[in-house]
Amino acid sequence: MLNYNPLACLPSSEELPDSDDTPVDNELQDLIPGLLKALLAMAWPERMDWFFGVDMGIYYDPDLPAIVPDGFLSLGVERFYDEYLRPSYVLWEEKKLPILVFEVVSQTYRGEYSTKKAEYAKLGILYYVVYNPLRRRKPRLEVYKLVNNAYELLHDGNHVWLPEIGLGIGIERGTYLGIPREWVYWYNEQGERFLTPEEQAQQAKQQAQQAQQQVQLLAERLRSLGVDPDSLT
Questions:
Q1: In Å, how far are 137, 213, 214, 219, 226 from 230, measured between CA atoms?
Q2: pTM, whole model, 2 decimals?
Q3: In sequence order, what are the beta bridge partners of 131?
Q4: Which of 5, 36, 97, 212 is the most exposed place for a label (fewest CB within 10 A)?
Q5: Is the dihedral of CA 38, 43, 45, 47 positive or negative?
Q6: How far is Cα 105 from Cα 141, in angstroms, rounded to an integer?
């Protein structure tokens, strides 16, 4: 008897376009999701069960084009398959919905508060995060959670804790790639944001300088007591 596998008839991730080829009209649409991805690699250095896609197509129906959020997070999947990495995210291969999708609003409105929001809710994605750097009177960061098939807005100051992910997400001023501005960050359970790579390097430099100063102060103290610190080594 012939065994029929319907998944074998579907196109693979290697055969599907990796994005919709729509150019971003705001550099932040690349930089902010890129920062979130870099911070996850530092927050979860030992974990290999997560994937964060940036401007990557998510295929959910073989007869429909992919949806392409600015960023998305999936848990419980392989972080990478091999050295060629993922060309796209195909649900009938991954068998895991992203738990969070992320959009950066630019001057060209792309339905972030209407059609995209409805589409992500229909797919069943738990968290929908929208950052609008152009807003002045309304919150620039909005975090929605899917409740009874509809998104409800979460309110928790400048950052919101996401228990299913084990991280918080929020906005704060900082420096990334030499650019001082408001960025979107991940936060730990204590409400402390994860530092950018350059902030970590600067912090390590300052700690090394402080340690060197303490050594010099100790050496001067020993000399004042008539002890040659070099003779102690």
A1: 63, 16, 16, 9, 12
A2: 0.80
A3: 104, 141
A4: 5
A5: negative
A6: 10
Residues in the chain: 233
**Strand pairing report for 127-131 and 89-90:** unpaired
- List per-residue pLDDT tens for the chain, 233 residues long: 434 354 555 655 555 555 445 545 678 999 999 999 999 999 999 999 999 999 999 999 999 999 999 999 999 999 987 787 889 999 999 999 999 999 999 877 788 999 999 999 999 999 999 999 988 888 999 999 999 999 999 976 789 999 999 999 999 999 899 899 999 999 999 999 999 887 877 667 766 677 777 767 776 776 787 777 777 76
How far is Cα of residue 63 from the mean position of the Cα atoms in its chain? 29
Task: At 182, list the tokens.
Answer: 């408001």
DSSP characters over 82-116:
STT--SSEEHHHH----SEEEEE--SS--STTTHH
What is the helix, strand, coil percentage profile of the chain, to 5?
Answer: 30, 25, 45
107: which residues sit within 8 A by CB, 6+ positions away?
Answer: 25, 26, 134
